Protein 1
Amino acid sequence: MKTPRWTRSAGSARTSAASVIDRGAAAVDDRAVMRILPADARAAFAADGVICLRGLVDADAVELLRAATEAALAGPAALFSASGRPLPDSFLWLTQPAVAELLLRAPIAAVAGALLGTAAPRLFYDQIFAKDPGRSLATPWHQDAPYWPISGEALTVWIALDPVDHEGGAVRYLPGSHRDGVLYRPTSHQDRGAWEAVDLPPLPDLDALPPEALREWTLAPGDALVHHARTIHGAGPNTRAGRPRRAYATRWLGDDARWTPGPETMDFPLPVEVRPGDPLRGTLFPEISIAAEI
Ligand SMILES: O=C(O)CCC(=O)C(=O)O
């Protein structure tokens, strides 16, 4: 494996964070990727649609991401979607240059690229999931893919910024649920209503499954979960007194990703520079080239 070199693809920078990525050419220690992505991890990801990678990022990165999370949540929101909705918990990389730099430095993109089978994974967006003890809601069962205006292979790298266990709101998965290609109707995370306009079957009753049919991990800060965009998952509320449960998620696209907006799919903080059916590109969706064998 050669040393990965990460550079951003062409596109005009509109924010300081985007400029950081435009300067490109940061290096990551390829041994770190090999250590955290063992040979059988790709087979496990293909079979289960989710894997746990211990210690994906180091303590300094965890501190940086905690600070970025707190800054984002302290508000006011720095970004708004095209429809005027505040986006306090996503696209941190656009407004916080330190986060963009971290995405060049840490082995996150390399892991995404290795699992997506591309030397140039594209960052779709990033998002924080913060659950305050005693005040948080459950994350309903869902797949990510139906919320997204894209087709093609995609995955999430979800990094724990605090210790996480079952009572603290661990993410739970239905292993293998990505494999048959079925998409289920999404649920609004705000009002818990189903998306009426979307012609997809309802999710099976995951709560009726025996606990052993599901998978979850107890995590330390810096550990990561990587899940496929079709893998069904959800999480309980954080019921651990006095302990926050913060996580930083990045969403990554493979080479076959195409722009396929629907009536209810999420919207974005900058004009999207692609037409339906086109590959994603432009300032909003930077490609990080990893010059390494994957
Ligand atoms: O952290 C959570 O509660 C949910 C995470 C999630 O749904 C995701 O990363 O897609």
Note: Confidence is low (pLDDT under 50) at residues 1-28.
Protein 2
Amino acid sequence: MATYLAVPPTEGTFPRDESAEFPRARGDAITGDRYCSKEFAEREWQKMWTRVWHVGARESQLEEAGDFVVHNFLHESVVMIRQKDGGVRAFYNVCRHRGNRLVMSEEGGVDQHLTCPYHGWKWNIDGALDWVQDPEDFPQGNPCGKLRMKEVPCETWGGFVFYSFDPNAVPLMEYLDPIPKLLANRDLKNWKRVVWLTVRVNTNWKFASDNFNESYHLPAVHPQFEPMIDDHYSTTIFEMYPSGHNRMIEKLQPSSRYQNMNEMKPLWADVLKEWDVDPAAYEGRAQEARIALQQARRKLGPERGWNHFAGFSDEELTDQFHHTCFPNFTITGTPEGLHVFRTEPDLDDPNWSTFDYWYLSPEIEGQAEVPTLYGMRPWVEAQHETALFGLAEAKIAQGDFLSQDLAVAVSQQLGLRSKGHDDAYLAEQETRIRRFHEVINDYLEDRR
Ligand code: FES
Ligand SMILES: [Fe+2]
């Protein structure tokens, strides 16, 4: 039977938070309408999306004062702008003259003003209105000095720029707690986004939080990982935090699900060889090689330019740290980098969503290129690529896990719409999924 932990694990030196609990859930049903009804999607907008913090950009997109990034979310649009004092402010992307959308491009830079294309009003990057045509012709008074762009809360963490539609939003660090603490060993602000891919997928936005909240799907969907990712619940750490965020930690070692978990298999052997660990020495005790790999990376990391290893705990040198940050921001820390998923609802149809995959990599000294899901990429900020699901195929030895996940997301959406579906029948290790839906319900029913 399961060895679920009643309290947060005390073994190991990786960052942890005392608010962590073993997954518990009330038992709210995960019904199909949540994924396909327009009425439900509208309630999500009214009660939840208008309250939470949204990830809008990377700070690296805003190098100089006047640089801006536009983020469209459903029918809304927000423009985030670097200020002269180095801060970032965010505004509704709308001109207060007669409501024209101010900026139509995805990103760019201005010296001092955003100029509305309709009647030419000039909005200062700090939100003030500096110039209008015929200022003397306003009987109610010159709007300059009176009007400002409508501002929304905007804060940064780890190089990510967040905004909220809620003027009374709690401070970002309070909202994210304890995620920043758990990722404290990674200097995310200085890691570069070397892959920036946006895919339109015919599935509801919630698929990602659901899917990345469990590792139960690994054997069926990603069988290729069996020799190197331990997906079994008996060795996985599942945590939930009062803030609604979750964490799951999987060990890098052959899966404990199988009798032959201590046989050395090719994929695992390759990982070990790369770090001068002799696979033959671990034949018959393949799982023990995880510790050997930690030691090898600790020792060889600096001379190979993997300087970020110096700040990592032993576990972080091997294991996968999956964080689901409520509601739609999933961050997985691996020894090599950070996989970021952001899913957002579609403007017209809850059966569609936008899936963003960002891969952040630390600098590896002496290497101009870093390994990614899409092959070796230069260690520079990536250009934005967009695709319809099915057109972006990764080519890595471990197989394209992202396309595998998206493929089941599409087929699951078809089933969730059926009258044949009324609730999920979850394993204990999937509890975080029900809990995710319960946090949504807490927003929709005014308990948060
Ligand atoms: S709507 Fe922007 S200047 Fe008129
Ligand atoms: Fe997956």
Note: The radius of gyration is 24 Å.
Protein 3
Amino acid sequence: MLPGATAALGGEVRINSGKADPCKALALHLNCSRPVGMVAWFRAATALSDRLLRVTCRKNLMRVAVTGAFGYSGRYIARRLLEAGHSVLNLTNSGNRPNPFGERVGVSPFHFDEPSKLCRALQGVQVLVNTYWVRFDHRLFTHEQAVANTKVLLRTAREAGVRRIVHVSITNPDLASPLPYFRGKAELEAFLQDLGLSFCILRPAVLFGREDVLINNIAWSLRHLPVFGIFGSGEYLVQPFHVEDFAEAAAREAEGNDNKIVQAIGPETFSYRELVMCIARALDLRRPVVSLPPRLAYWVCRGVGWWVGDVVITREEIRGLMENRLFVDAPPLGRTRLSEWVRQHRDTLGRHYTSELARRLDRQSEYRSN
Ligand SMILES: NC(=O)c1ccc[n+]([C@@H]2O[C@H](COP(=O)([O-])OP(=O)(O)OC[C@H]3O[C@@H](n4cnc5c(N)ncnc54)[C@H](OP(=O)(O)O)[C@@H]3O)[C@@H](O)[C@H]2O)c1
């Protein structure tokens, strides 16, 4: 170690101002007592520049705004960013949810109606990771509103000097689709690409993890209902992506520079029927899985929704599933296999129903996990 350099925690090297004879210093560094020759000088200089490079890289830490950092995927992304040494600002309308990160994460409301406040909150932020979206139209929120709000967020981020945006979309967004989820996501992708900032668009199909809704609620239905009804043939495809793999990709892309669109899918592709059977097998449940006309299955889900006080699934979501919109022909990005994960979580998965609406109506509580 050079006398002018001291090691700090975590392998960082701080350069201090101690004066020392450079020759002696290099001799010490090379573990030799004699003055050093050209080769040794070169070796020492290379080692030092390597170390300085590592210090500089480590110091390239950013302030990253993450939407919904006390929610589902945003929480995993925030954790990854903090672990990499970055600081995180949580943009949310649910700032009173339990904060798992303590003072390491600041909180600001979205301020969609007052962009000047949002702009102030975003001062000093280099990267925005945007997960904000609404799952379905409801009397309290709509896709149309979510599109308009997201445009405010993205535009204001640019005004505030944000350099890069990592934006979460969906597989197969489509400007021509009658489905507002897929159409709205396509509109936002186009808006982002025209904004002139560096961007990465992540397109997940279905996320799974401890706080997920779909996989947990399939398991819950299998546990609680005598028969599992699927929409039509059940032969349409889904590619579940683990939320930790997703967070890893989002955090990596936050540190990147390239403009790109990434298909965020896991290593396994299931037909919807296979997905249900896979979960049933893991839970050791033998339930008949029957095809129902999609309209009838929708009304059954409406009945279950009334029972649990939630929107279990919408007509548009059924249509999106059946149109194969949660499938893309692309190499997997994640490593975690849903079939293994479900087996590992068989004791807890589906024990409780996970309500999307409860998350929206109660903005104080932590997201329920399976
Ligand atoms: N979960 C999946 O299986 C899945 C699949 C494909 C794509 N995606 C995409 O991944 C992104 C993140 O999804 P996530 O499941 O991790 O979401 P989430 O954490 O539940 O919510 C993400 C953000 O959206 C806000 N939000 C959600 N629903 C809202 C509503 N009805 N009204 C107002 N604000 C709402 C949350 O607000 P608060 O901060 O105030 O809570 C949070 O900031 C979304 O863009 C989604 O389209 C998710």
Note: The pocket of NAP is lined by residues 67-68, 71-74, 92-94, 131-134, 141, 168, 170, 204, 206-207, 360 (CB under 6 Å).
